[in-house]
User: Fold this.
Amino acid sequence: MNFGTGPAPHSLPFFPNLTSAMHARPSSVPPGHLVIDLQMLPPEGRQLSGHIESGVFHLEDGGPKAVSPLLYDIHVFREGDVLAVTGSISADFEMQCVRCLEPFTHRIAFDDYSAEEEIGENSASVDLTERLRDDILLALPGHPHCDESELTTRPCPAAGRFLPASSYSPLHPEDADEGDRSHLWDALNQLKIDTGSKN
Assistant:
């Protein structure tokens, strides 16, 4: 794992879940979070590469399941009151195809990622963990199809079994024409007239 060139571990400007950086993480920083120490961030910013454990996604059972850490290779730099982030992030998830109902692995990847995180007043650090996590989760497909995965190179086993709504045709084509059902309305109207005449 490459964290780039920079100061010695005791002055790292971020706090990944690494044993070598344990003594550099303030007690208020949860383990495994990506926290940028603004006081140690040079004016030109810094390149950071690493991962955040998959548990950060906090996904419920029965839905997508993270099967890899959240990988990041980003450049962070300060622009006034915001911390700018550019680079790439990705994570792999196991999910169920809505057509064949079989599990498959899907990768969410941003190769040209960019984000800005507001720096609070008097803040000495910025935690990027939630921002990276949320941007990955928001990209999860609502109706996943296994044949659209970058990692699963196969046709969906259920492909062609179901016709799209646009290709639907009634069993009796004559029923599709509103005009052909006019006699039904005439009969209904006559029934109403006959019923009314008895009162």
Summary: The two ends are 89 Å apart (CA to CA). The chain has two domains: 9-148, 169-197. The helical segments are 129-137, 182-197.
